[in-house]
């Protein structure tokens, strides 16, 4: 694919992404939401964050990988404990990344 | 030069606070943006197109999928549809953010919406739950994030050919570590625990069923339903 077609494809990808991000914040306020949607919104943050975390950790090359060799998956357990204890964005990320790098280094 | 008045002071204060609160996110953006730039050049995209992707698409997963599909020569229509599916989660995140920005004028909600990412959503939904959003602070979080994302992409483009195997540096764990750091403090009741556990297990379930990018939405919906069911059930229990 030549770079011009690629550029036009990227613009279309951008338009789609922006539309998805924009539509609710632009159009929802001021509208009366149905009750079920209202209660759903309260649970959304934890629900979507949990699903995305597991997606990033347990899916390797498009397949579910729960094996011991999936270092990032198992490193998530101490990282959760670190998050609960420190409640700090900085320390949790720093701890988690250091742990993963160390484990990968030790396991070769 | 005149002394800054109160509104200028609080404006500066919000810019500073916004930058500080998002600093850990910026580390992750830097790592991921560099990785994206490197991978994009290696996949054969021009430097200009690589930067355009970070500027216009501004969503890590969709960008990484995008460069792979572009490199494979997949038809543009399929690539755009894949982007739509991967990024459909932003509809969910934007809906959850909508009540927080409800008092902003329409054009400000428009500009705010352009800058929604997984990280900005996660950070702001936890920061502004139960207290009003500070507008300047929120826009600072958004703009600084986008700037660093594009700058890191440019850095990745520059070092492009010299780095191999970005995973060795633990960069891939930055994003999940950030989600964990933001999610764990949000879990305060037994219902929240149920929602979190269901979300994770449901994701695995839908992936095993063969869902690919839709799995996130399906798992999110399942977890929300589980949370509502659990709430109803606890309410009916005599305490």
Give me the strand/helix succession of chain B: HHHHHHHHHHH
Number of helices of chain A: 4
Q: Biggest sheet of chain A, open or closed, and with what strands and sense?
A: 2 strands, antiparallel
Total number of domains of chain B: 2
Fold and architecture overview:
The complex is a heterodimer of chains A (108) and B (239). By secondary structure, chain A is mostly helical. Chain A has helices spanning 3-27, 35-58, 71-86, 89-106, and strands at 59-60, 63-64. Chain A has two domains: 1-31; 35-106, no CATH class. Chain A is built from four helices and two strands. A two-stranded antiparallel ribbon of chain A has the order 1-2. In chain A, helix 3 (71-86) packs antiparallel against helix 4 (89-106). The longest helix of chain A is centred in the N-terminal third of the chain and has 25 residues, at 3-27. The two termini of chain A are 38 Å apart. By secondary structure, chain B is mainly α. Chain B has two domains: 6-184, no CATH class; 187-234, no CATH class.
Describe the secondary structure blueprint for this structure.
The complex is a heterodimer of chains A (108) and B (239).
Chain A: H1 3-27, H2 35-58, E1 59-60, E2 63-64, H3 71-86, H4 89-106
Antiparallel strand pairs in A: 1-2
Helix pairs in contact in A: 3-4
Chain B: H1 6-42, H2 47-56, H3 60-72, H4 76-87, H5 89-97, H6 106-114, H7 118-127, H8 135-159, H9 174-183, H10 190-208, H11 215-236
Helix pairs in contact in B: 1-2, 1-3, 1-8, 2-8, 3-4, 5-7, 7-9, 10-11
């Amino acid at each position: 694919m030549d770079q011009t077609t690629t550029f036009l494809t990227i613009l279309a990808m951008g338009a789609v992404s922006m539309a998805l991000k924009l539509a609710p914040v632009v159009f929802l306020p001021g509208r009366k939401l149905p009750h079920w949607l209202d209660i759903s919104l309260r649970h959304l943050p934890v629900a979507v964050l949990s699903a995305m975390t597991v997606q990033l950790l347990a899916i390797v090359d498009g397949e579910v990988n729960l094996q011991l060799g999936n270092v990032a998956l198992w490193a998530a357990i101490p990282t959760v404990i670190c998050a609960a204890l420190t409640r700090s964005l900085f320390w949790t990320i720093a701890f988690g990344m250091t742990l993963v790098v160390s484990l990968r280094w030790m396991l070769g | 030069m005149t002394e800054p008045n109160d509104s200028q002071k609080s404006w500066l204060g919000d810019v500073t606070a916004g930058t500080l609160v998002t600093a850990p996110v910026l580390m992750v953006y830097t790592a991921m943006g560099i990785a994206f730039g490197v991978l994009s050049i290696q996949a054969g995209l021009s430097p200009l197109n690589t930067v355009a992707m970070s500027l216009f698409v501004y969503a890590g997963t969709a960008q990484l999928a995008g460069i792979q599909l572009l490199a494979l020569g997949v038809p543009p229509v399929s690539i755009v549809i894949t982007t739509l599916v991967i990024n459909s989660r932003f509809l969910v995140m934007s809906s959850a953010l909508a009540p927080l920005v409800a008092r902003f004028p329409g054009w400000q909600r428009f500009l705010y919406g352009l800058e929604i990412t997984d990280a900005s959503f996660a950070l702001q939904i936890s920061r502004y739950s139960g207290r009003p959003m500070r507008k300047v602070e929120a826009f600072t979080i958004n703009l600084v994030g986008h700037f660093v994302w594009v700058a890191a992409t440019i850095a990745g483009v520059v070092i492009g050919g010299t780095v191999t195997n970005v995973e060795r540096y633990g960069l891939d764990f930055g994003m999940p570590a950030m989600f964990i750091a933001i999610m764990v403090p949000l879990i305060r009741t037994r219902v929240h625990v149920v929602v979190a556990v269901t979300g994770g297990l449901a994701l695995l379930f839908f992936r095993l069923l063969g869902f690919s990018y839709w799995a996130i939405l399906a798992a999110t919906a399942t977890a929300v339903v589980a949370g509502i069911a659990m709430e109803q059930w606890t309410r009916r229990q005599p305490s």
